[in-house]
Amino acid sequence: MSFNLKEYYSNLSKGDVILAYKGSITSEMINDILEGVEKKLEDADEDSKLRKKIYNILVESLQNLFHHIEITHEGILEELEPKFGVLVVIRENDSYKVITGNFINSRRIKFLKEKIDKINSLSKDELKDMYKFILNHQKLSAKGGGGLGLVDIARKSGNKLEYDFHNYNDDYYFFNLTISV
Amino acid sequence: MEPLNIESTPKTPSIKFLEDEGTVEIKGRSIPENSIEFYKPLVDWLEEYASNPLKKTVVNIQLEYFNTSSSKCILDVFKKLEAIHKSKHDVVINWYYEEDDEDMLEAGEDYESIIRVPFKMIEVVE
After folding, report:
1. How confident is the model over B103-117, as a mean pLDDT?
2. Domain tally for chain B?
3. Which of A56, A130, A176, B42 has its Cα between 20 and 30 A from that of A5?
4. Does residue A98 or residue A70 have the better pLDDT?
């Protein structure tokens, strides 16, 4: 069965939702989301250590979307704004989930999947070494991404990255990433 | 030396050079989408400063948050400082982190293990 965006989004937005957004991922939107979530976490009187981890992961997730999502979605039969992405933050018991979703061209899946699998196979110390290696040896791309985002997210989260690729059509998949903090 | 004085914004830190004290201060949040553009003035300034540095340079860096895009630029800044240190001038990097912020302490230690400049890890207690 083909991926259904509406269903996906409404399933995500159940439970204790701190924030749910779908639409264009722009610099201004990132500012608004960060400000909103920061305030909600402060109001919830959340432990400052956890608050910082969530904030950091949120920054990286949003900027990963900002730098890497498809700008246009040719062949997708949904009314999508340019640079369309989904971001949901949910509270579950004592922990939080940061979930991002975006359409991705089928050609880019292999690279992304291998990168996440590699990150998930590493221990805490190995992740630290990987982070330091990339930091010291890779140049920032013109897009501004440094290839460090997912590694940093995994380090801060302390958990494995959960992901799915839902088939949409021949050219596109929908990529879902769930980060637990 | 040219003055260096950059005001902070919600996404970028303030950067100041206090000539009398030989101190560069970087303070706030560093989470811009385009960090190369933001850090260029500091990197350029350090490049020039390195040609005739003070006997002792102290860098106080106190960041509440920084993104991975900034982390590369901060490394570039530290590499400039490393060059000054190599040319037989005193350089100290004071890395401030908030109480219990282990991630920020660890980030400082990551830099300390890459850059050949003395680091001091300083915990800020509220």
Report:
1. 96
2. 1
3. A56
4. A98
